[in-house]
Amino acid sequence: MSVVAIDQVHKRYGALEVLKGVSLSVEAGQVVAIIGRSGSGKSTMLRCINGLEAFQSGTITVAGHEVRQEAARLRALRKDVGIVFQSYNLFPHLTVSQNIKLSPTITQGVKPAEAEAIARRVLAQVGLLEKFDAFPDMLSGGQQQRVAIARSLAMRPKVMLFDEVTSALDPELTGEVLLVMEQLAKEGMTMLLVTHEMSFARRVAHVTVFMHQGKIWETGPSKELFEDPQTPELRAFLSNGVK
Ligand code: ADP
Ligand code: MG
Predict the structure, then answer these.
(1) Which of 15, 13, 4, 33 shows the shortest CA–CA distance to 210?
(2) Which of 5, 60, 210, 234 stands the most exposed, by the fewest C-beta atoms within 10 Å?
(3) Which of the listed residues 10, 12, 34, 44 should we mutate to test ligand 1's pocket, taking the one with most ligand atoms within 8 A of CB?
(4) pTM score
């Protein structure tokens, strides 16, 4: 059964049509990489999936929730969808564990002792248990991004969305974040990730989607897509590197 089902979604910003009939289905445990040039609609698609952006037509269903701009629906939806961005936005005045406990405590009414246990579990998952009481500014960018992933995992999402989570990091710090994502994939997390890391997409994603001009231009098993691109646009994208 699909965890994410996107059907003929059209999205406009004023006169600018950004998604031109996008359809995509993601099965439980599947890892889907989304690649494409800047401006091709990748972030917009992710933001539509968890209701951060409204769309004009088509349907999106995520873990049984039909995505619509109604407050109660959005709250229910977001309990099941985690999203991590390029900027990690941890609260600087709170410790790592306090950052992680905030959402479960406030939005799910989790009791302090349980929140503590959750924080330990998710920090162990991203390999940062020893930073439990550290403040964010004591951590490297890579470690902060791993905390942001842990914070998202604390909500026990059924699907995780990642939007260029390593793009703001120095090259030597991207590896540790990608490793955490690969581990999550191995644990069976359903994931959609927008990435410029082509070798990661090829190796870890079951399916890669190439977006171009607001459309899914080409998609397939990652290995096939990278080894044997069918369209001139994807061939050009892969040979020119990322823009
Ligand atoms: P990508 O993530 O692939 O770089 P985006 O989804 O961010 O692309 O953007 C797709 C298009 O939508 C771009 O042309 C961008 O300028 C436009 N866009 C994105 N957000 C907005 C917005 N809030 N208002 C108007 N146009 C936007
Ligand atoms: Mg983007």
Answers:
(1) 33
(2) 5
(3) 44
(4) 0.96
